């Protein structure tokens, strides 16, 4: 991944809306250090697919909007990653594993009162995934 790609992904994160304009409830930890990625990968039982960049979205635990904002941020990151020809995935289980680890909290420099809401690993995909038909996945009722 290039620094230009990382900058564009960070810009996509920065464009995320915030519930009630509360921009102080969410932070991004961009992890590109190979050693730190390996440690986090171990703590999350291999959940991050060895991706070269981890976008760790941390939020205040007492905010009613923070987790929703984090999901919006993840979607922004994933859309931008696709635009850049990169692969990404929304990881919740790995985020939960990091929250159970004091070591992970220290490694990520998480502030008191913050937890990891989601991790979005980003990298060059090993293969181009098939695009399933998504025209009828959810029920839509016109009223």
- The chain-level structural class is alpha+beta
- What summary fits the major beta sheet? 4 strands, antiparallel
The number of helical segments is: 5
N-C termini distance: 46 Å
Structural Rg: 16 Å
This entry's quaternary arrangement is single chain
Query: H/E series, N to C?
Result: HEHEHEHHE
Share in β-strands:
15-25%
- The overall pLDDT, averaged over residues, is 95
Helix percent reads 25-40%
| pLDDT < 50 runs, ≥5 residues | none
Q: What would you call the shape?
A: globular
| Tally of DSSP β-strands | 4
Cross-sheet strand order for the largest sheet: 1-2-4-3
Protein name: Nitroreductase domain-containing protein
Domain Nitroreductase: 29-123
Cofactor: FMN
Family: Belongs to the nitroreductase family.
Topology:
Layout: H1 3-14, E1 26-31, H2 34-43, E2 53-60, H3 66-83, E3 87-88, H4 93-99, H5 102-107, E4 114-123
Antiparallel strand pairs: 1-2, 2-4, 3-4
Helix pairs in contact: 1-3
